[in-house]
Design goal:
The structure is a homodimer. Chain A has about 450 residues and is α/β, with parallel strands linked by helices. Chain A has two domains: about 110 residues, Roll (Urease, subunit C, domain 1), CATH 2.30.40; about 290 residues, Alpha-Beta Barrel (TIM Barrel). Helices cover about 40% and strands about 20% of the residues of chain A. The first copy, chain A, contains 15 helices and 20 strands. In chain A, the strands form five sheets. In chain A, strands 1, 2, 3, 4, 5, 17, 18, 19 and 20 form a nine-stranded mixed sheet that branches. A four-stranded parallel sheet of chain A has the order 11-12-15-16, sandwiched between helices. A three-stranded parallel sheet of chain A has the order 6-7-8, sandwiched between helices. The longest helix of chain A has 20 residues. The termini of chain A are far apart.
C-alpha cells in the first residue's frame, strides 16, 4: 500500500512523552507509517503532506490500547445481562457459543474492530475461537492487534490445540506489515492442566511471544485454584515458570500480599506480570474491584481493557478510563487516587507496556509508529479549556473521536470508516446473532 | 409559540409504561405539547403531522431527568480535579466562585442546558447563585427545570435570602408555559441554622413547593451534623418538619437503619425523602457509594443526578445510568443488583417521581407532556438487537441522541440546537472562565 504523508497541524498534542506532555499549537508529521516530528508548529521542518488535518479545536493523542478482549463476542452484546455467573455462563453464553462458526467469528470481529477504531482504539489483545479467521479481519482492517490461539484444557485434543498455538504464533508473527503480534493464550488455571501449562510456557519461551491468560478474576476462582493447585493463581503461575516469559494477566482482582510481591519482580524493565484491568466487566459480573492503585504503587504495569461485550457491553477505552478514575477513588475513599494523568497513561502508554509494544506505540514521539487519534473539542461538554487532560478523562467520550490512524494509515475520518464495511458488518452480525440465539433457545 | 404536530413513526418505543414497556413498530403522536397516541403504527389514528421522524433504527424514549445539579458550574469544568475536599473547596472552588457575576451564571447555565439537551436530558433540578438570571436561560431554551433560590446560612442577610426564596418561588411558578417548577434550596444542615430551616419549611409548606438540599453526602458531614444537631442529617431534617413537605435530598450516601426507616415513610404515594443519586460525583469526591439497592428495596424514590461539573465533569445521565448499573453490582458483589430496566426507570420516571412531576413526564403515555428523545441505533456499538433496554444502559452513550423535544417543541434535531446559540455559549463560557480563573489566582 502506498504510504501517505500526513500533517496534523495545528493541534493540541497530548503526547504522553514526559518531556513535553501537552503542547499547544503543535505539528505532527507522519511519513512511511511513522511519526517523524512532534513539536511546535512554528518550528516544524518543511513537509509536503498528502493529507492535512488541523484546527484549534483538535486534540491529538496516541491511540488507545485495549489489553484484553474477546472481540467476536459482539455477537452476544445484550444477549444476557444482570444474571448470576453460573446460569449466565451455563444457560446463556455457552449454549450460544456452541453454535459459533468460523464466519460468525469473522464478522463479529469485524464489527468489534469497527467499534474500536471509531472509538480511537488502535491496538487490542484478543482471545477467542477461530483465531486464524479473526486475524484475517484484523489484517484487512489495518488495526494493530495481539491475537492469540487459545488453549482450553476442558476442550478436546489439547495437544492439537498446543501444536496449533505454536504454528499460529510463528506464522502470524509480523502479519499485516508487522501490526499483528500473536500471543499464546492458555485460558486459565482452572481450565488447563499442569502438562498444558508446561508445554505453553515452553512454547512461549521458544517463540518469544507473550502469554495471555485470565487470573484471579473472582473469589471463587481463587478458591478453586487453591484447592486444585495448592496456591493462589499468581503464585501457581510463578511456580509454572509463566512469569519468566512476558505474562499478560487479565483481571487480577483478588490478590494477596505475596501475589503483589511476586508480580512486582522486574523483567526487562517491566513487572513480571502485566495486568489488563477490566473495570466495567469486573463490576458488571460483580467480580469485585482490582487493587489498581496498589498495583501501581508497587510498580506493576497496568493497562486498561474492555473484556468481551457480553460483560461490558462496550469496546470503549474512554468508558474504562473514566470508570477507572471514578471507581478507585470511591473504593479507596481518597479523591487523589488515580488522577487523570495516571489514567490516561494506563489507557495509552501503559497499555503498550502491558503488551510489550512501548518501543513502538503508546505515545506521540518521533520514531514511533503513527497510531494517532484526533479528538474534536468543539463541543459543549469540552468547554471551557481549563485542562485538556482532565477533559479527556472526565468529560470526553468515544464519539468525540473524529480521525484515527494506525501505522500512518487513516482508518476513520470525518465519520467514515475507510477500511471496514461497517454496514455489512452490522447486517451480518444481526443475522448471525439471530441464528445463534434461535439455535441456543431450541 | 405555535405548536407543532409531530409524528414519530415507525420507532421502537421504550415507554416506561409497565403495560407495554417496549413496542416495536410504534407510532407516537404529539399535539399541543402533549402525547396523544403511543401504540402500534398500524393502529394509529389519522394524524396530519407538521414534522415526521421515523426509521427502523430509531428508539424513542422519555427524556432523561437530572434530579440535582449546579448548572452554571460548567464554568469550572476541569478547573480542579483529583484533590482532597478541603483544599479543593478552599483553594480552588470558592475563590473562583467569589468572582462570579450574574452574566457568568447566565452563560454557564446556557452551556449546561445545551449540553443536557443534546444528551437527551429534558428536565433538571438546579441550585446555584443568581437563580433569577439562570431561570431566564432555562425559559429561553425551552427545557423543563426545577430551579431554586438557595439559602446559605454562612452568607450575609439570611432573612433577605429567605424572603427572596419566597417571592421567587411564587413568581417563577409556571414560567415558561408551565415548564419551570421552582423549589426552595436550603444548602444543608451544616450551613444553615435552626431558625433558617424552620422558616424554609414553613415557606415550602405554604407555597406548596419542594425543598432541595444536600444530605448525608460525606462521613465528615454526618459527624458534624451529629455534633451540631445531636442526630443524623435525615433524622434532624425529620425533626425540623422537612419530611412533611416534599423533600429532594441529594446524595444520601451515609445512612443508618433508622434513617432508612424514616425516609421510607409514605406521603402522597411517595417516600418522605426522595433521593437524587449522584454516583459519579460521589466517586470523584470519594464520598462513598450510596446504598441505592437498599433504598429501592425499602420503596424510597431514587432518581439520578450529575451534580455540578466541578465534580463529575459531565451533565450526562447516560453516564450516570451506566455507572449506577455497574458500581452497585461491584459493591454488593451481586450481578443481579440494579438490572438495566431498574436503572432506566431511575433515569426517567423515577427522576420524575423525585421531582414530583410523574403525572406529567417520565414515560411515553398518552396524556403526558411530550418530553421525548430519539436514539439512533444504526451504530456499531448498538448491534446486534438482542435487547433494546440493555443497549440503552450498557452500550449507548449521549452522542447517540439525535432528536430531543420538550413539551412537544423540538430543541435538538439532526445535530443542531434549535433554541440555544451553542457557539456563543461556548465562547462566552471560555472567556468568562479565563477571567474568573485569573482573578482567583491573583
Amino acid at each position: 500500500m502506498p504510504m501517505t504523508r500526513i500533517a496534523l497541524s495545528p493541534v493540541t498534542a497530548v503526547t504522553l512523552d514526559p518531556h513535553a506532555p501537552v503542547m499547544q499549537d503543535a505539528a505532527i508529521h507522519v511519513e512511511d507509517g511513522a511519526i517523524t516530528y512532534v513539536g511546535p508548529a512554528h518550528d516544524a521542518p518543511d513537509f509536503e503532506a498528502d493529507e492535512v488535518r488541523g484546527g484549534e479545536h483538535l486534540v491529538a493523542m496516541p491511540g488507545l490500547i485495549n489489553t484484553h478482549c474477546h472481540a467476536a463476542m459482539t455477537l452476544l452484546r445484550g444477549y444476557a445481562d444482570d444474571m448470576a455467573l453460573e446460569p449466565w455462563l451455563q444457560d446463556r453464553i455457552w449454549p450460544f457459543e456452541a453454535g459459533l462458526e468460523e464466519e460468525d467469528v469473522y464478522w463479529g470481529t469485524q464489527l468489534a474492530i469497527a467499534e474500536m477504531i471509531r472509538n480511537g482504539v488502535t491496538c487490542f489483545a484478543d482471545m477467542y475461537f477461530f483465531h486464524r479467521r479473526a486475524t484475517e479481519a484484523m489484517v484487512e482492517s489495518g488495526v494493530r492487534a495481539c491475537p492469540s490461539a487459545s488453549i482450553i484444557g476442558v476442550f478436546p485434543d489439547v495437544p492439537g490445540q498446543i501444536a496449533e498455538a505454536r504454528s499460529y504464533a510463528s506464522e502470524a508473527a509480523g502479519a499485516g506489515d508487522g501490526r499483528i503480534r500473536p500471543c499464546i493464550a492458555p485460558h486459565s488455571l482452572y481450565t488447563c492442566e499442569r502438562e498444558h501449562w508446561t508445554a505453553v510456557v515452553d512454547a512461549a519461551g521458544e517463540l518469544g511471544v507473550p502469554i495471555q491468560t485470565h487470573a484471579a478474576e473472582t473469589r471463587a476462582e481463587v478458591e478453586e485454584v487453591r484447592k486444585r493447585w495448592g496456591a493462589t493463581p499468581i503464585q501457581t503461575l510463578d511456580s509454572l515458570g509463566a512469569l519468566d516469559v512476558p505474562l499478560i494477566a487479565a483481571h487480577c482482582v483478588h490478590l494477596d500480599d505475596t501475589d503483589l510481591e511476586v508480580m512486582a519482580r522486574r523483567r526487562d524493565g517491566r513487572s513480571a506480570v502485566r495486568v489488563a484491568h477490566n473495570p466495567a466487566s469486573n463490576c458488571k459480573l460483580a467480580s469485585g474491584v482490582a487493587p489498581v492503585a496498589e498495583l501501581r504503587r508497587r510498580g506493576i504495569d497496568v493497562g486498561l481493557a474492555t473484556d468481551g461485550t457480553a460483560s461490558n457491553n462496550r469496546l470503549d477505552i474512554w468508558s474504562e478510563m473514566r470508570l477507572t478514575a471514578l471507581l478507585h477513588k470511591a473504593v479507596e475513599l481518597d479523591p487523589t487516587t488515580l488522577a487523570a494523568e495516571e489514567v490516561l497513561e494506563m489507557g495509552t502508554l501503559g497499555g503498550a507496556r502491558v503488551l510489550g509494544l512501548e518501543a513502538e506505540v503508546g505515545s506521540l514521539e518521533a520514531g514511533k509508529r503513527a497510531d494517532v487519534v484526533l479528538v474534536d473539542f468543539d463541543r459543549p461538554h469540552l468547554h471551557p479549556p481549563h485542562d485538556v487532560v482532565s477533559h479527556l478523562i472526565y468529560s470526553a467520550q468515544s464519539a468525540d473521536v473524529v480521525t484515527v490512524m494506525v501505522d500512518g494509515q487513516l482508518l476513520y475520518d470525518g465519520g467514515e470508516h475507510l477500511t471496514v464495511d461497517v454496514d455489512r458488518a452490522m447486517a451480518e452480525v444481526d443475522a448471525r446473532a439471530r441464528r445463534l440465539a434461535t439455535a441456543a433457545a431450541g
